[in-house]
Amino acid sequence: xxxxxxxxxxxxxxxxxxxxxxxxxxxxxxxxxxxxxxxxxxxxxxxxxxxxxxxxxxxxxxxxxxxxxxxxxxxxxxxxxxxxxxxxxxxxxxxxxxxxxxxxxxxxxxxxxxxxxxxxxxxxxxxxxxxxxxxxxxxxxxxxxxxxxxxxxxxxxxxxxxxxxxxxxxxxxxxxxxxxxxxxxxxxxxxxxxxxxxxxxxxxxxxxxxxxxxxxxxxxxxxxxxxxxxxxxxxxxxxxxxxxxxxxxxxxxxxxxxxxxxxxxxxxxxxxxxxxxxxxxxxxxxxxxxxxxxxxxxxxxxxxxxxxxxxxxxxxxxxxxxxxxxxxxxxxxxxxxxxxxxxxxxxxxxxxxxxxxxxxxxxxxxxxxxxxxxxxxxxxxxxxxxxxxxxxxxxxxxxxxxxxxxxxxxxxxxxxxxxxxxxxxxxxxxxxxxxxxx
Length: 438
Fold this sequence. Notes:
Number of helices: 19
Helix content: 55-70%
Radius of gyration: 28 Å
Number of strands: 4
Structural class: mainly alpha
Shape: elongated
Order of helices and strands: HHHHEEEEHHHHHHHHHHHHHHH
Number of domains: 2
Oligomer: single chain
Distance between the termini: 29 Å
Strand order of the largest sheet: 1-2-3-4
Largest sheet: 4 strands, antiparallel
């Protein structure tokens, strides 16, 4: 979920900002109706210029209800452009757990994020429901008539702009919770990019059309687009296309096909946690044996014997299977191969930290004093065991976000022992400062 929000926000930020010279609603509609009359005129609709004009008019008709605002603009910038235009109302709303400020206008809603930027534009009263579709079709027709290819640059530029607007619409629909609509807009973005003379594969939109359909529970549609993504060789981040196709095959009752997707995905992306978990669940649910997992991992090791990440994967497998001692050996092997590979340390630290949480929960439900104290002892032992590997990971990590996440674990672990030994109070203060960004 976080990943798609990040990807979509980036795409939206990169699309062309709405022009400050957006036509008024009436002027845009009048121009569109005039251009429409010309494409319906047999004497004019064989000319490239007629269809270019119609495409531009319908694009303007799409833009007009959005006003003069553009994505990522701040209020000061908008003030200079919009002048005295005031919203009908302003309200605070919560979307996906975040606070936004919503400004309501007669034809649109503006959503400002916590940084004060215009992050979403929701059209509530379009001039034409299918303005972008008509605009794209017009440019397709113009290309068909442009036998001399003299307008290729103009047509491709217009198509790219339309594709970007579809992506913006998809992002808005996704953020506002309309997953089915988001999937439709991603499909349209992919189609716009595929049209000649643009003729390019928009793999990101193809994948996201499937992803949002999957989130919406539309399995048939999700499978259609994930298969397209698979066919064009776009596997998503960490091979998520394989994981999703496996999930859909499982839901459709084809467990063998699900396994095939997972195994193929594991061979290409052995570090993918979703693929790994899917494989573990498959083998446990179907034959009770996970030997095949280690066979696949062994094949990967033969090809890359010095790849520390493969031992990290082995550690994760052993950890999830409850083979703690074997997991420790695998995680330690990561450091032996590459002392600067942080995730072996992190995997080991998380394993002991999660183990400590489990013992803590068991202790809280234990009524027998002796058993309670035994669980507390195990809790404290596991909690102390997570500190060293987490600290080693901090020594080699370069990513600030991951450092903060690791420091959060360390802060929580050291808090338990801060009154037992002054060194833990010092550690607690150190890691609390990192978490706070100091």
